[in-house]
Amino acid sequence: MIELLASSLRLSTPLLFAAMGGLLCERAGIATICLEGVMIMGAWAAASVAFGVSDPYIGLCMGILAGMLTMAIHCWLCVNAKADAIVSGVAVNMLAAGVTPLLTKAFFQSPTNTPSLAMEDRFGAVAVPGLEALPVVGPLFNQPWMIYLALVLPFALHYFFYSTGRGLRVLASGDNPEALETAGISPRSVRWKALLWGGALTALGGVYLSTAHASQFTRDMTAGRGFIALTAVIFGKWRPLPTLGACLFFGFFDALQIRLQSETIQGWEVPVQLVQSMPYLVALIVLAGFIGKARPPLAIGK
């Protein structure tokens, strides 16, 4: 059971980063269906640079920069060019899905994956002193440091939104941008800053996948996690702490489907395809009937 919970934390981490990034953007008033593309670009840049310079922290910085630049494209299209956010998000996703294999082929002569990172060039496990030796639950406190950051992030974002002036500006940008203009604050400026920071957070999900959870970038390695993260934001009703619970919920089912792939039920071997579809089926079921009334930011898309 502890192994299943530890696996759930590992699989929830990219969802948490992407969900918090998407939450920051959407509370500022910009829909972000482009989370998948931002994660892909962050994952590719981090793995490629970490392999080239043999330093995962430089790869981390470049992954964040790639995510911010990708989100900047979406921001310019939505905020400056007044494009529809859904159309822009789909375009960004398609761009990322097409550019990364092209760059991988150009730099590494393979359209599907970058070279594997050496163990010292990856983000390994970091034990929490005094807790990793606890009986039974000890493995939960011996994880890559990015997992700890992902778990703290929703609480930090909750504090930012509801206890700081800049956070309240972001909320006003998504709910009542006219009030910001009355106060002499530009909603466009607030949205640009929110989306750039949101791109950085989302990119961390991709960085984690390619440098901590795995040892290389592989084509489409995000496997729909950006869309599941967006589902978690909706499930959490655009609030950080409920979104944390939603990400852990989806991460648990992702870990469960991996465990079930090697199981049989009363002599019947469960089809792998059915098991692998479990996280997406759960997301659809949650969206279809278990959210209740969820009110998005009032000015989103305007």
User: By helix and strand content, what is the structural category?
Assistant: mainly alpha
Provide the low-confidence segments as ranges.
Answer: none
**Rg, nearest Å:** 19 Å
Strand content: under 5%
Count of separate structural domains: 1
CATH topology: ABC transporter involved in vitamin B12 uptake, BtuC
Measure the end-to-end span. Answer: 46 Å
In helices, the fraction of residues equals 55-70%
Task: Please tally the β strands and state the result.
Answer: 4
Mean pLDDT: 88
The total count of helices amounts to: 12
The main sheet comes to: 2 strands, antiparallel
Architecture per CATH nomenclature, i.e. the level-2 architecture: Orthogonal Bundle
Q: Shape, please?
A: globular
Spatial ordering of strands, largest sheet: 1-2
Report the order of strands and helices.
HHHHEEHHHHHHEEHH
The CATH top-level class label: Mainly Alpha
